[in-house]
Amino acid sequence: MSEKVALITGITGQDGSYLAEQLLAKGYVVHGLIRRSSTFNTSRIDHLYRDPHDPEARLFLHYGDLTDGSRLVTLLERIAPAEIYHLGAQSHVRVSFDEPEFTGDVTGLGTTRLLEAIRVSEVPARFYQASSSEMFGASPPPQDESTQFYPRSPYAAAKVYAYWMVRNYREAYGLFACNGILFNHESPRRGETFVTRKISMAVAAIATGRQKDLYLGNLDAKRDWGYAPEYTDAMWRMLQADEPTDYVVATGTSYSVGDFVRMAFEHVGLDWEKHVKFDPRYLRPTEVDDLIGDASKAKELLGWQAEVLPPELVRIMVDADIEALG
Ligand code: NAP
Ligand code: G4F
Fold this sequence. Notes:
- This protein is of the alpha/beta class.
- It has ten helices and 13 strands.
């Protein structure tokens, strides 16, 4: 049987790196879209990379950008992937308030450009869209696939637009396209300005005497936090199913930002109240207060279930950041 070929946008991000690892382990040839930058941005996937002249190389990286539609067409024609995992996005909610137009372009229109590239190139690829629990926004929990969207940020609005474009291409052109509506998922590879990683890094630095205080915004918001490698496995399962559809992926548990802070400091024997300070710059003009996902559909149709829950997730992240400090 010939090797399966996959394309991952956002391969240099948290999820892209875990997914690339998992697909390579399954025997896929993996292609990744990366942005040209003046400094290297591939640290999360460097351990997977081999020189392309090596006959054993099965990971190939291509320069490109989600704002450049013609490049996406050329790449698809050249790579002819059987599966496309579209993870690339301006993914930071707070930043999307500062850069709403750019976020709409990359996170919203970027999906349309990729869908159009599939249609125009006629590559018979299955498509995964990185949809988000942020789309539920102000809709009260628990949230499942039938919960009304109520986006509370430019990022969430862009993801809602992309979600509907995916559904439209599925219905209009028969594309095998799935929306994975993933709730927050974290790991030691999480971007350093998302709250869980900001906390785990600060706790590690404070516990080892390198830092004194940690400045945060709203501690009351509640999130359904899972473990990223389990969530990238759910993405793969969606594209192996018989029919394309949309799925919520979540743990079904909910903790506040304050709970996460307390658990992280307790893990190293410190009192969080002595170190955490408030800075209003981290507040958002509109907040998402409470997310708890109901992933029953993913359990029933994909056999997927979250295993790592927040108390363990906190320990994994804090321990990894302490180890990284040597
Ligand atoms: P991430 O770490 O922020 O990674 C985002 C990726 O997108 C990076 O590889 C980034 O490249 C790339 N990217 C950004 N702008 C681009 C552009 N203009 N052209 C091409 N690539 C671009 O995000 P993540 O946490 O892995 O999340 C993956 C996806 O799932 C995102 O779409 C996110 O919105 C969505 N999502 C995440 C969560 C979560 O809790 N993590 C939950 C629901 C949905 P650089 O490395 O060059 O910046
Ligand atoms: O870690 P966050 O920035 O993640 P947020 O906004 O929930 O978004 C993440 O999850 C989404 C899925 O629901 C993804 F779609 C999205 O791409 C991203 O991965 O913030 C979590 C909570 C918020 O309520 C925020 O107000 O933490 C609160 N918070 C409090 N202090 C802070 C801070 N957030 C950040 N980033 N930094 C703070 O200092």
